[in-house]
UniProtKB/TrEMBL annotation, chain A:
Protein name, UniProt field: Nuclear pore complex protein Nup85
Pfam assignment, any one: Nucleopor_Nup85
Residue ranges crossing the lipid bilayer per the database entry: none
Keyword Membrane on entry: yes
Subcellular location, record wording: Nucleus, Nuclear pore complex
Automatic annotation (TrEMBL), chain B:
Alphabetized InterPro entries for the sequence: WD40/YVTN_repeat-like_dom_sf, WD40_repeat_CS, WD40_repeat_dom_sf, WD40_rpt
Lineage: Eukaryota, Metazoa, Chordata, Craniata, Vertebrata
Keywords carried by this UniProt record: Nucleus, Repeat, WD repeat
One Pfam family here: WD40
Name of the gene encoding the protein in the UniProt record: NUP43
Gene Ontology CC annotations of this record: cytosol; kinetochore; nuclear pore outer ring; nuclear speck
Ranges: WD repeats: 202-244, 246-288
Cell compartments where the protein resides: Nucleus
Protein name, as recorded: Nucleoporin 43
């Protein structure tokens, strides 16, 4: 979290002469785009001209891969919303531990510090028992104690250290540990530690025993307790006086550690402030102070204690950080202020989006109408999800978040999903599945079209066809078929027979594709010497108008060997139709009489072909009539 | 199927494979490899599931898998094969490292009027049968490598006009590939030409096939999974159409595996976030379903689509058998709740591992309890 009033770091952009040219920039979800213009300071009328583009990635520790777990599990919980707050907390706690390790392992100490401060900031706020309506019923102080204990995780490692050593009470951090346990209100554990001290040094055994007794008898609130508050206050007052008496009697005078413990338990502010290092932050100070001076504090009074604790702890040395502002707003139970402060202070929308969603579900958030119509929860979720899409692998999570935004979610998803870079087919398939599940047919079509086009360029006609079939894109299927036909015309044979032979019902997708399939079938049938079938197939190709005009000549030429066969294959009727087609073809073609010799040669070939066809057709007609006539006659 | 443990690993897992045990070993599987995808830096990682000797009093314990080592890789990990000595190079008994022993670059590439020469194409599948390695890719090319040769031993260019999705060995010189127009092709490396020796496909819609696996004992029985989540069982000796079609998942089926030692069991995983266990063993008439924890059980009848009059009934394979009254396949969903896509799974003995797009790896050591 940046200090809002600190000096910003300066980054020099290589290759840009800032004296001569000015730069312009724009923000992205996680990056900044900077480019050099050709405006210079003197001549304002020069045109805008793009020379260099620089892309800066902003430092976003929340996108570090170890934090993915946070995003994922939050996503999991977000979708299910079961026992939410506790789950979120445990997730955050686990992530926090991992991030600590990352921070320690970070090579650059500055970034390590930033990591830990970011994470600490976020986790502190998340773990704060902010809103009483979210909590199960119970006194406020217990929840605050819980919070502090969860938040400070160094105690466990310290305790493991001390207890694991040979002589725990002689460990250098022994008294620190005991003090921390007292500060956190974990009096049972503190007592156990003290008993170890009592065992090893009989001189202080008596004092330890008395202290232990005090610790044991401290009246505490517990949820199952049936005492009334007044009873508890009375008992607590009594206990407080007892501690006071022991202190006055100088019972612990010979052991300064025990004496300071006693003062702490009396809620003496000076003694507490002496332990600043162990407390490490003002809200810990606040909770301890409340524990030992006003254990029955009510939520309403919390903010006053909070403010005074902050002032006392900082002691005028440093000013509050943005995190402190967030917490203050939280203690005042001002939800909107909390959200506002978080949005300003934190570098991405992860925390704010989830928090607002939680609050919205608990009906604690009055919805503001923002100027483009959706409410705050949706706005924040949209921002967060857009940020997820900017990341190479978290986009799948973003999809689910968009699903939960009723007004603008679908539109945003439609825009984002088309722009995911698709390097492999497998990724493309996943994206397409997401679109199909949400009936986004436009997006399916456009993505398939891009993939099919890439495939055509790479000469993968089979892939191109399978993409067009998936998108039910007739136009593209036509394009692919044209490609095949062109290849056939150039080479005289079909490429990719495995594809064309096995088109199946996909053939119906486009006319051209059907033609391709049927034409190939014609070749196959011809190859099997089933001439009658081949003939009728060929004829149907021409008469049903699915053959492109440019191909008719080829088809007619294919008919030649059938016409020249010894047996009569085409019936008279069929021959008439073939003649009709030929006439249609030749009548439509203008006669060129140009000076180009190549053109003349082509024309000659054409004319020869036509003449040959006419001759063959005429002969066939003659034979067909004779045959049909004689059959009828007999 | 008792406990299945999940661990979040901060990378989307594209493939998981058990490290095979030395032949004749009686241990259960302990180490598996994973490949990740879709990050800027992807990793091939090796994990170990520890010693589960200690049980809590209530029978639960932390079944965590530990990362042993990993190696960075630029580009998505599309497929993974683990052999005792390929991919993994042990440097001493206690320390395993992954290092790049050999790389074949530009094994798959596109050439075409629109693409610059040798623009690379993703390789989609790999299978190895020591020392031979076969790869297939989006460029429709099949490559045969040997572990000690720098160049490909044999390449079949333009083996397919569409993308080849997966490959498996049938018999040693023969491989089987599936492609994105729904065809199975059998290639024989003994033949010189570039044509497949056999093509099988469904009539009907050309649904792309994504995965294929061969029955471990009966080399003519093959299972494939398609884009519509349909599981098909084929007999490559008979005809060109599948023996049975089973409606399975709601989205693409990414992997199908026969259990290597109990081939009556089949496992499939899919984009719809589920992992299914298909049990075709017919010995127990009544099965107690009480201990299927958290999973859905349903019984499907296999329906055959072709009349296999010539199949000898003495060749017992529960997958090929066509009598609907006799054969009931029991299907169990193994994952406790729906997640994002389950991309990969592997089985070895009683152990199963799978990886998902939700950046989690699930492991169970009690498949048949």
């Amino acid at each position: 979290m940046e200090e809002l009033d600190g000096e910003p770091t300066v980054t020099l952009i290589p290759g840009v002469n800032s004296k001569k040219h000015q730069m312009c920039f724009d923000w992205g979800p996680g990056e900044m785009l900077v480019c050099e213009t050709s405006f210079n300071k003197k001549d304002v009328t020069s045109r805008f001209h793009l020379k260099f583009l620089h892309l800066f990635e902003c430092f976003l520790p929340l996108w570090h891969h170890k934090m993915f777990r946070a995003h994922l599990v939050c996503h999991f919980i977000f979708c299910r919303l079961v026992r939410v707050s506790k789950n979120y907390r445990s997730v955050i706690r686990a992530c926090m531990e991992e991030m600590h390790q990352v921070a320690i392992a970070a090579k650059d100490p500055a970034s390590g510090r930033q990591y830990s401060s970011q994470v600490r900031g976020v986790t502190t706020v998340v773990l704060a028992p902010l809103f009483p309506s979210l909590l199960p019923a119970g006194p406020l102080l217990l929840h605050l104690l819980d919070w502090v204990r969860l938040h400070v995780c160094e105690v466990d490692s310290l305790s493991a250290d001390v207890l694991g050593s040979e002589n725990p009470s002689k460990h250098e951090s022994f008294w620190n540990l005991v003090t921390i346990l007292v500060l956190q209100g974990r009096l049972d554990e503190a007592r156990q530690m003290l008993s170890k001290e009592a065992d090893t040094s009989p001189a202080s055994a008596g004092m330890c025993r008395i202290m232990g007794e005090l610790m044991r008898t401290m009246p505490i609130l517990s949820p199952g307790n049936t005492q009334t508050l007044t009873e508890l206050e009375l008992k607590w007052q009594h206990w407080h006086e007892e501690c006071e008496r022991y202190l006055q009697d100088c019972t612990f005078a010979s052991n300064p550690h025990l004496e300071s413990l006693c003062k702490i338990m009396l809620g003496d502010e000076a003694a507490l402030l002496e332990q600043k290092e162990l407390l490490s932050n003002w809200y810990h100070f606040l909770v301890t102070r409340l524990l030992y001076s006003n254990p029955t504090v009510k939520p309403i009074d919390l903010q006053y204690y909070a403010q005074s604790s902050l002032d006392l702890f900082l002691g005028g040395e440093s000013s509050p950080e943005p995190l402190d502002n967030i917490l203050m707003a939280a203690f005042e139970f001002d939800i909107h202020q909390v959200i506002k402060e978080c949005s300003i202070a934190l570098s991405n929308w992860w925390f704010v989006a989830h928090l607002t969603d939680l609050l919205d579900h608990c009906k604690l958030l009055q919805s503001h109408n923002l100027y483009f119509g959706s409410n705050m929860r949706e706005f924040l979720l949209l921002e967060y999800a857009s940020g997820l899409f900017a990341h190479p692998s978290l986009w799948q999570l973003g999809v689910d978040y968009f699903d939960y935004c009723p007004e603008l979610g679908r539109v945003s998803l439609e825009l984002h999903i088309e722009r995911i870079p698709l390097n492999t087919e497998q990724k493309a398939l996943k994206v397409l599945r997401i679109c199909e599940q949400r009936q986004m047919t436009e997006q399916v079509r456009s993505i398939c079209k891009i993939l099919a086009m890439k495939a055509v360029r790479n000469n993968r006609l089979g892939s191109a066809l399978s993409w067009s079939i998936r998108a039910k894109d007739a136009a593209f299927a036509t394009l692919v078929s044209d490609r095949f036909l062109r290849d056939y015309c150039e080479r005289g044979c079909f490429s990719d027979l495995d594809l064309i032979d096995n088109l199946g019902p996909a053939m119906m997708l486009s006319d051209r594709l059907t033609f391709l399939g049927k034409y190939r079938e014609f070749h196959r049938v011809y190859g099997e010497k089933r001439f009658a079938d081949a003939a009728s197939l060929l004829l149907s190709l021409m008469t049903s108008q699915i053959a492109p005009r440019s191909f008719w000549m080829t088809l007619l030429t294919d008919a030649l060997p059938l016409l020249e066969q010894k047996q009569v294959i085409f019936s008279a009727e069929q021959t008439y139709e073939l003649m009709q087609c030929l006439e249609d073809l030749t009548s439509g073609r203008p006669v060129h009489r140009g000076p180009d010799t190549q053109q003349c040669q082509d024309d000659d070939i054409e004319t020869t072909k036509v003449e040959m066809l006419r001759l063959a057709l005429a002969r066939n007609l003659a034979r067909a009539i004779v045959r049909e006539g004689s059959l009828e006659g007999s | 199927m008792e406990e299945i443990y999940a661990k979040f690993v901060s990378q989307k897992i594209s493939k998981t494979r058990w490290r095979p045990l030395p032949p004749g070993s009686l241990q259960t599987a302990e180490t598996f490899a994973t490949g990740s995808w879709d990050n800027e830096e992807n990793y091939v990682s090796l994990w170990s599931i520890g010693d589960f000797g200690n049980l809590d009093s209530d029978g639960g314990f932390e079944g965590d898998h530990q990362l042993l080592c990993d190696i960075r890789h630029h580009g998505d990990i599309m497929d993974l094969q683990v052999n005792l000595c390929i991919i993994i190079c042990p440097t001493s008994f206690s320390h395993l490292t992954l290092s790049v022993n050999q790389q074949w670059t530009t094994a798959h590439y596109h050439t075409g009027p629109g693409s610059p020469s040798y623009s690379s194409a993703p390789c989609t599948g790999i299978v190895c049968n020591n020392p031979e390695i076969v790869t297939v890719g989006e460029d429709g090319r099949i490559n045969l490598f040997r572990a000690d040769h720098k160049e490909a031993v044999r390449t079949i260019d333009n083996a397919d006009s569409s993308t080849l999705h997966a490959v498996t060995f049938l018999r040693t010189p023969e491989i089987l590939t599936v492609n994105s127009i729904g065809q199975l092709k059998i290639w024989d490396f003994r033949q010189q030409g570039n044509e497949p020796s056999q093509i099988l496909s469904l009539t009907g819609d050309r649904v792309p096939l994504h995965c294929v696996d061969r029955h471990p004992n009966q080399q003519h029985v093959v299972a494939t999974g398609g884009q519509d989540g349909m599981l098909s069982i084929w007999d490559v000796r008979q005809g060109t159409m599948p023996v049975s079609l089973l409606k399975a998942h709601e989205a693409e089926m990414w992997e199908v595996h026969f259990h290597p030692s109990n081939p009556d069991h089949l496992f499939t995983c899919s984009e719809d976030g589920s992992l299914w266990h298909w049990d075709a063993s017919t010995d127990v008439p009544e099965k107690s379903l009480l201990f299927h924890q958290g999973g859905r059980t349903s019984t499907f009848l296999s329906h055959s689509i072709s009349n296999q009059a010539n199949v000898h009934q003495s060749v017992i394979s529960s997958w090929l058998s066509t009598d609907p009254a006799k054969d009931r396949i029991e299907i169990t969903s193994l994952l406790p709740s729906r997640t994002l896509s389950v991309n990969s799974l592997d089985v070895l003995g009683p152990c199963l591992v799978c990886g998902t797009d939700a950046e989690a790896i699930y492991v169970t050591r009690h498949l048949f309890s």
